[in-house]
Design goal:
elongated; mainly beta; 7% helix; ten-stranded mixed beta sheet; Mannose-Binding Protein A, Chain A
């Protein structure tokens, strides 16, 4: 099983006034705005801060948690949901409440009763993997667990357009290199290519977190958000111990910021130097998908993405 655990750190302080209410007082019964929970959120530079609260919910002592800035101000620019935090103690899941209508000092309130901090464990949504980790108090356990759905690598070999011809042949190159490396059987592989007949987001549907061949998290962005995402790590070759090479170009045919027809070497059949193909940069985390155009008589790598159960 390929698994990732990223530790998140928290700080305890502060107090609020006492309120007795029910879980429905948040204004949204389930705290969920459907369709947004899986959207990645930029919280770089923010802290997750928690403290014992004087606010009671359903006659139970609570712990308040919030996203805050360096100056300890509560972040007001981030939509939060009760599903963003799962609190577990003594084998039971504790109640989590959106604090908006209960106590404006917090984003969440967690019903802890008399449970000691050392017995609490928080599971934080992977939307917040870039939270600052320096404020974890002694005894409290908190982590983000990300179960990857896709593996992305770039090919060892360089390919000319005459090596591609069509999408299925490009997929075959990916499968061949994946088999050579020894990736798990049962996975199907797709080259991250687009042309005028088949867009990349139709060929592959990003359903969950994407990792590289070193088991490092690239992105949690799903669906169409994947194509505009900045990666947390670099894409690697299928064998991550392979020595780097000067070649950084990778055929994609994709410019996510352009509304023009794709630069795809005329559907990947033309090696004419006067025709162009879009390429990304395998050594970049923000220009991985598109950096420039390349004459179609040149060679470049391919990106290969798995479809199938990695767990």
């Amino acid at each position: 099983m390929i698994r990732f655990s990223l530790l998140l750190c928290l700080l305890w302080s502060g107090c609020t006034e006492t309120v007795e209410t029910s879980s429905n007082a948040s204004g949204n019964e389930d705290g969920l705005d459907e369709g947004l929970v899986d959207e990645p959120v930029s919280v770089s530079g923010a802290f997750l801060h928690c403290a014992i609260s004087e606010t009671e919910v359903e006659n139970q002592k609570t712990m308040g948690c919030r996203l805050e800035d360096q100056d300890r101000s509560k972040r007001s620019d981030v939509n939060v949901y009760k599903e963003d935090i799962i609190a577990i103690a003594r084998g039971n899941t504790l109640g989590v409440y959106i604090a908006e209508n209960l106590d404006v000092n917090w984003h969440w309130l967690i019903g802890i009763g008399e449970i000691p901090l050392a017995e609490l464990q928080l599971q934080i949504s992977p939307r917040f993997v870039d939270l600052d980790k320096s404020r974890l108090p002694a005894g409290l356990k908190a982590e983000v667990e990300v179960k990857p759905q896709h593996l992305l690598f770039y090919t060892t070999l360089d390919y000319s357009v005459s090596d591609l011809i069509d999408m299925e042949i490009a997929d075959g190159h990916c499968a061949t290199e994946a088999d050579f490396v020894g990736f798990p059987a049962g996975l199907t592989w797709r080259a991250l290519l687009t042309d005028t007949q088949s867009s990349s987001d139709h060929r592959v549907v990003i359903l969950g977190p994407v990792i590289n061949s070193k088991n490092e998290l690239l992105t949690i962005a799903t669906g169409n958000n994947f194509w505009n995402s900045t990666f947390g790590k670099k894409v690697l070759p299928g064998n991550p111990s392979e020595s780097p090479t000067p070649m950084t170009d990778v055929w994609t045919g994709i410019n996510p910021d352009s509304q023009a027809p794709p630069d795809d070497c005329e559907n990947w059949v033309s090696s004419d130097p006067n025709v162009n193909g879009a390429v990304g940069n395998i050594d970049s985390t923000d220009k991985w998908l598109y950096e420039k155009i390349l004459p179609c008589d040149q060679t470049a790598r391919l990106y290969c993405l798995s479809n199938g159960d990695l767990n």
